[in-house]
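Q: Here's a chain of 393 amino acids. Please give me its 3D structure as tokens.
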Amino acid sequence: MAENAGHEVIDGVRELLPTLRERAQEAEDARVISAETIKSLEGTGLFRLLQPAAFGGLEADPLTFYTAVRLIASACGSTGWVCSVLGVHPWHVGLFPAQAQQDIWGSDSATRISSSYAPTGKARKVEGGHRVGGRWSFSSGCDHASWVLLGQIVTDSENRPIDFRTFLLPRGDYVIEDVWDTVGLRGTGSNDIVVSDVFVPEYRSLSFTDVSRLVCPGQELNPAPLYKLPYGSVFSYSITTPIIGMATGAYDAHVAYTRERVRVAYVGQKAAQDPFAQVRVAEAAAEIDGAWTALERNMTELMECVKTGQPIPLDLRLRVRRDQVRGTGQAIRAVDRLFENSGGRALKSGTPIQRFWRDAHAGRVHAINDPERALSMYGGSEFGLPVPADAML
């Protein structure tokens, strides 16, 4: 049933693409995705793809989710980014204790959750839970969510670090501060979350130790293979996928523009006849295809492991992270190649190519896309060295 429903979601997303393209500039100008757009996407079932079936979700294959995100990002980078982030959170919440999931979806299965995982606040262990407070940044799509996931290092009464946990807070426990004014991904509304020392019960937090071990309390309620995948694989690709989508959108826009473009500097020659332009397009296409093919292979192998009950080998987890950061790099190289071959008219505000170029580079600076750590872990493992602990592995 989830497979058929997944196809229906993809079909629904495809129907919305022309509208999303038309609204891309509007989202950029407003610095937030419109409520109308979110409602339309909700109607496709997109935000339920990775949500537990126990709470009205589809428990779809991750590839279905990534495919939908890539399509959306190919029409509007900011919308694709927000959909990917909001869409992956139901999977993460599915790892939390059952009571936390009940709190979120018990009365409304369409409840959405934003996040800010970088531990920039404070969390202190107290009886029955934790005291949490501070400021967290870059919570994409927070205006369209009524809960938030916040990552934080936990300290004891003597301020010593004892754990790294993710906390779930309802809208009444935090304030959104509008600080998002950027050169790229302007429409994501990735504003700050401010919390003033609130109590979070124990069941509404999850240790990254359990997440890394792939043994979480939510798996009792949600036994599907989907919830046995590594967080570092599922989440990291939710960041790379929209960037691949932006590169795809830039490619489509560039090809359509170049077919009709006349290069004045070359005595009226059509740009499409330039063999060097043809080479650049081929190079960009190969980069995009390579990034997507690796994603498909890796997620297929991960799902095969969890479906058959096999342990996920460390070398596969390392390869996923290797290919994920490389995939982001390939998408960026493709966008750059296309942009530099688009001519001066591509610089005009409102054109798709410059917006995709800015959005992709904005997505590139996300911490999960830093290549050195992931590539070093992979290379060190190949040389027989110990692999350091890493929450994103």
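Q: Can you summarize the key feature?
A: The two ends are 31 Å apart (CA to CA).
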